[in-house]
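lol forgot to send this yesterday, sorry. struct tokens for the thing we talked abt
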């Protein structure tokens, strides 16, 4: 599972593309957990990234199914009155954000492996 610094770029992209659209975001958030709002993004980011990586589809339904199976099943927030969390309606944006980071990383890795053009 993704952990620590591996997750920082995903969190930054999600903050920008997902949290910015969240209507449940408390004043001063994110981060929202210290402000009393427990959200699946902050609680389960590693599992969320893993679950998105296991699906390759142009449709959102397989991502929703996998999210419920792999993330919600084990979410500590599930038995509380803060479930469902904003991920339930922002999942499409979260998937896009995660795939944006993946594309950026793939591009960076491709560039670093491409030899410099021969200089005369
Ligand atoms: S919808 Fe509920 S179970 Fe799923 S991540 Fe959000 S809080 Fe957790």
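and heres what i got for the seq, position by position
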């Amino acid at each position: 599972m993704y952990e620590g610094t591996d997750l920082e770029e995903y969190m930054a992209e999600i903050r920008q593309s997902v949290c910015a659209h969240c209507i449940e975001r408390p004043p001063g958030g994110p981060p929202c957990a210290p402000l009393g709002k427990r959200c699946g993004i902050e609680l389960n980011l590693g599992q969320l990234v893993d679950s998105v990586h296991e699906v390759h589809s142009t449709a959102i339904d397989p991502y929703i199914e996998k999210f419920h199976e792999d993330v919600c099943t084990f979410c500590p927030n599930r038995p509380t009155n803060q479930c469902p969390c904003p991920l339930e309606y922002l999942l499409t944006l979260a998937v896009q954000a995660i795939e944006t980071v993946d594309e950026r990383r793939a591009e960076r890795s491709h560039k670093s492996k491409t030899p410099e053009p021969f200089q005369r």
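Helices lie at 5-17, 40-53, 61-70, 87-113. anyway ping me if u want another try
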